[in-house]
Amino acid sequence: MIFEKIKTIPTSEELLDKAFRRSTRTMAGKKIDGPTSRCEANEAMLLTAANILTDNLSNVTRMFPNFESLPPFYYDLADILIGVDRIKKSLSRVDWASSKIHTLARDYVGKIRGNPAPADARKEAFGRISSIIYSIESDLKTLGDARNALRNLPDIRAEPTIIVAGYPNVGKSSFVSYVTNATPEIAAYPFTTKGILIGHMEINNIRYQVIDTPGLLDRPMSERNDIELQAITALRRLDAVVMILIDPSESCGFEIGDQLKMSHEIQAQFSLPSIIVANKSDREEFKKPDEIKYVISTATGNGIDELIQELVRMIPVPKKEFEEPNPFGY
Prior knowledge:
- This is GTPase Obg.
- Keywords: Hydrolase, Nucleotide-binding.
- With 330 residues, the protein is an alpha/beta fold.
- The chain folds into 2 domains: 12-150, Up-down Bundle (Four Helix Bundle (Hemerythrin (Met), subunit A)), CATH 1.20.120; 161-314, 3-Layer(aba) Sandwich (Rossmann fold), CATH 3.40.50.300.
- Helix content is 49%, strand content 12%.
- The chain has helices spanning 12-28, 35-63, 72-81, 84-112, 118-135, 137-150, 172-180, 226-235, 256-269, 304-314, and strands at 161-165, 185-188, 195-203, 206-212, 240-246, 274-278, 294-295.
- The chain has a 7-stranded mixed sheet, sandwiched between helices.
- Strand 3 and strand 4 form a beta hairpin.
- The longest helix is centred in the N-terminal third of the chain and has 29 residues, at 35-63.
- The protein is rod-shaped.
């Protein structure tokens, strides 16, 4: 996944502690027997600390992807969770700090060489370096928060997608498991305490992803917070169709009237093609609502093949971002 390579972002204290401990060990390994060796030892201390800090700060900026080249889906989610501009500003500040420490260290090397009191110049450099690191403390925290949120995003790819919506216990996860013929991937999702299920199926050599989104779509729109609504908006970035699953048997614990109401709310909220499907047709208490065309049973498999054909037909054809001109003019 795009953000998996982002490692833990260190704090200002952790960076300084690591740099200064290493520089102290560098000094301990030096033999000081006169003014020249004393200057060289202090210079080595300064360069060791500065190199550690610049390397670590540069690593922080390199770990994050180029947001302008991200798929729109992930760009939107990053913007929702943290704010892309905020992340980019913090990355710029960290990059500035790395460059500033590098320049400052080189300047102070000149002040240490030949100095009768090289430790004073080195301590002054350490003080200025510390000020630079503490000045980006909030930026490091922002990037740490971004890293923790982005690493938990599900691996949703830019491929034909079926989004499964509906109340809890209507059979959404069972549907994903049935049509993908495998245990779906369980991915932590940052918008709720629940996760989402992702499965894949292949039809006519085309791979489709099937996404169960509990916590996002199983509550009335009026009860959703802004982040949940924006998450739904982000899902629109996918070439997808929304399948809203209902349970007319009401064994899920919710009345059919409430289920249909929420189904219509989802259809109004999404600009994606959608279809309402009745599940649990194998149960005695099942009674198909008049408005529902497709009826299935995830327990027996009844009606699922026909439904899949309809869902695949409904998936929008991806738009071509660029089409090569025909050199022959036709």
